[in-house]
Input
Amino acid sequence: MYASEDVNNKSYTITNEIASNFRNISEIASKSYDVKDMELKDFYIELAKNEIYNKNIVIKGGIDNLNFNEINVVKSNIDGKYYTSVNVSVGGEYSLLSNLNIMFNENDTFEGYTETLIYNNDKLDKFIIDNYQNGKLIEHKQTDIDYINNGQIREGIRGLKDIGAEQYNKSWYDKVGCIAALLGVNGTVAYLIAGTCTAACVAEPVGGAVCAACIGGVCVLGAADIGAIVACFKL
Output
């Protein structure tokens, strides 16, 4: 389903809220890195699965919709303390950027979790974003973002990653990069990622120091690429 025939030509406006949310994501990304060591990554995935299957986590999107083939593990250093986030994609009827984010402290003890569910309002053909913190709904947001399907979202993710990869090509990046980030499916994906952060950044589980839901955006695009893209959204 397409929200409109000219979705690829739509340009998105930078708002104060979007700029602020991307600054939050950028700050987390600057203090985070993806876990690449497979043995260490598997260790944290098993920790997360234990929390899920021991029913310490209430999964609003349904346990059957968890995609364990799409898991990212991110370590963050916040105020001298290390946190590890295990980010699991949520599928089924939910949009591709939906995710469950399980956090562990520096002692590898379960700290809490967030769940972001993104789906279409069929009547408006606009996205809805639901943010949960430790199983409690903290934000239900009807957005003005036109619905696009998962194929288009993947295209937008690739587009944003390509823009991030070009950040060192200054002549191209200055002329084209930010324009491309705001256009079409790239802009839609960027707005969806930013939209997951609004309320969650002032909530637990880490005393407000870490916006756990925003880490989903870091996991999707990668810490290195986020910094380049966020520059386009600064007012």
Q: What stands out?
A: The CA atoms of residues 112 and 222 lie 22 Å apart. Strands lie at 32-34, 66-78, 81-90, 99-104, 110-121, 126-133, 136-146. The mean pLDDT is 80.
